[in-house]
Amino acid sequence: MPTATLFSASSSLYPSPPSSSSSLIGSPASSAPRALSFAPKPITRPPSAKRAPPHCTRSALAIEKETPEDNRPDTFLREADSHVTTSTVRSRFEKMIRDTQDTVCASIEAADGGGKFREDVWSRPGGGGGISRVLQDGAVWEKAGVNVSVVYGVMPPDAYRAANPGADHKPGPVPFFAAGVSSVLHPKNPFAPTLHFNYRYFETDAPKDAPGAPRQWWFGGGTDLTPAYIFDEDVKHFHSVQKNACDKFDPSFYPRFKKWCDDYFVIKHRNERRGLGGIFFDDLNDYDQEMLLSFATECASSVVPAYLPIIERRKDTPFTEKHKAWQQLRRGRYVEFNLVYDRGTTFGLKTGGRIESILVSLPLTARWEYDQAPEEGTEEWKLLDACINPKEWI
Hints:
The chain is α+β, with helices and mostly antiparallel strands. It has a single domain (67-388), classed as oxygen-dependent coproporphyrinogen oxidase (3-Layer(aba) Sandwich). 33% of the residues lie in helices and 21% in strands. It is built from eleven helices and twelve strands. The strands form three sheets. It has an eight-stranded antiparallel β-sheet. Strand 4 (128-136) and strand 5 (141-155) form a beta hairpin. The two termini are 25 Å apart.
């Protein structure tokens, strides 16, 4: 997150730093569970309310305010970057993430059979920008977001510490470049799983208080599955595609990144995982840069074959209000992780990122019940047990 833009290691759709509706079932009866909507409401500031003091964290915005654009540019790179050569890692990574966005969105629209993505293009005066696409209230998808971002900025100390929890020093502002694609796909049918993926590239320049320091770079990302009900064949298929992508580069990648995923997506206050995992990696720079660029590209290319066959099998499965209520409870867990633990969400909020992009990972609806626990042996219990005790699927 990742889970809320480009940097998110999880579900944020804002780039994350280094280590850092029920139309299918008709109108519900009056006794049906109510879902909590996340539709934003305007906030009116009372005349007597004072704005935040100039020293607050939010005042030290590290990224310029975005400007809406009517058309997609050929590149979001600064002129100095884009005119050097089209073979740089920055330019090739931008091409990869934009191709991935186009491919995934086309597949999502085809599976929905009628829904279309809304697209917002934005830029920033100093360079960078992004394309946010959201399909909402479709036939298959409750909410599907696929974003790309290219960001230049300065990481303030607060954001640096959020990105690097283990840092033992307090650096000054650090210039950075980040690019990534991030997506969260929430289907309506409770038997169809949610998917999150995020692939990103991050560079820092020398801190202002340490001129001449070497530029650092790393890759991060992953793809993970969050079902409300377990179908073994679906989960095994998903993990097999992840393993095949990893094995093309290093046989140690899948077991390493699978465990990393299980360990990262933990809702600590509940002692359970958000879902059934996949792969996750961050701060990856201990391999050849070209190899890691190819690896990230392969992983992004594996999203559609890993996920869409599952959606085609499950999107029309009949379900009841009970199934829908359980899905909504699990969506609540999704919200908890993204807003409390996702590093990408924290980073985006602290650096003044585009709020709609950061929070687009949140589902349209979710649910919380007091002291809810499934009965042992039920399908709901099996899902919860797998989230508490991760297993090897292949």
